[in-house]
Amino acid sequence: MSSLQMDMQNVQHHEPTDVIESLDHIRYVELKCYSGKKPDVDFAKFFVLNAKVLELMKFVVEGRCTQKWRTDQYKCLQFDSRASPNALCDFRSYSGHVDPTGCIRRGYHHNEHVLSMANPFDSSSCSHCRDA
Fold this sequence. Notes:
InterPro entries: F-box_dom-containing (IPR055302), FBD (IPR006566). It comes from Aegilops tauschii subsp. strangulata (Goatgrass). This is FBD domain-containing protein. Residues 16-59 form the FBD domain. This protein is α/β, with parallel strands linked by helices and 132 residues long. It has 2 domains: 21-95; 101-132, no CATH class. It has helices spanning 3-9, 38-50, 67-76, 127-130; strands at residues 28-34, 56-62, 88-94, 104-105, 108-109. The protein has a 3-stranded parallel beta sheet with strand order 1-2-3, with helices on one face. A two-stranded antiparallel sheet has the order 4-5. Strand 1, helix 2 and strand 2 (56-62) form a beta-alpha-beta unit. The N and C termini lie far apart (52 Å).
């Protein structure tokens, strides 16, 4: 059996009706350090296509994102087919080593530790965020 076939056996298959119930409550999603590459697009597209009350999806992009790049991302994310017809898509860019949203501070990748925190949405216990 090939490696690809073995990998495919481990993939969970979900019915469209199996979408997580909590998506019905998500109004705002912010993706920091968004690259626009396939893994990021696939992750973001899940929210675009399933979050029914989404109001704003914000993408924080390292470096400059041109109008053409944003237009291409809009298509890749299938934003015209979004579950929430009023949802807005906002791309913001930052440059250098300091991201104003807290993604990268002094070369430290903030997202490396958030899953080990009791509440990953509470940055008050993070010394890297608190000291910035």
